[in-house]
Amino acid sequence: MTLRFDRCALAALLLGATGSLAARAAAPVTAPARPGAIRPEAIRAHMRFLSDGLLEGRAPDGRGYAVAAAYVAAQLEALGLRPAAEGGSFFQKVPMRKATLDEAATTLVLVHGGKEERVALPDEFYAPADRLRAATDVEAPVVFTGFGVTATELGHDDYARLE
What we know:
The protein is of the alpha+beta class. It folds into 2 domains: 7-88, no CATH class; 103-157, no CATH class. It has 3 helices and 4 strands; from the N terminus they run H-H-H-E-E-E-E. The chain has helices at 7-24, 40-50, 63-78, and strands at 108-112, 115-119, 150-151, 156-157. Helix 1 (7-24) crosses helix 2 (40-50) and helix 1 (7-24) packs parallel to helix 3. It is elongated and about 70 Å long.
């Protein structure tokens, strides 16, 4: 089984767990930590590890993600929390969708006055992967508006001559 957290869920989990970690951590003799106190340095240490480039971006199907999930599970176990997922695990199976763009099959062609101009991906246009459709074809008129700038104080309006 695998557990799928997004970054916010992972951060929230660690923020909640940090207080108990602080209670178990060795506190300086002169200033003992109160039980359950949230320590900024503990949060910072968890976030530094989880955001490190060594975790390779933590994509849900990647090795870095597996390392981050194992780290969170170890922290939960260190707090004395009991696993609640199937089979006594900290990991819950959650179905995920993944969409990737087939760059070889993705094109943008502009036609003006019967002349075709191919636009290069990714240098000249952006096309995100569509999680709902395997293919999308669009044929529609396009209006060039310059950069879409309206600066009345400079007497400039890219939309002024459009209907």
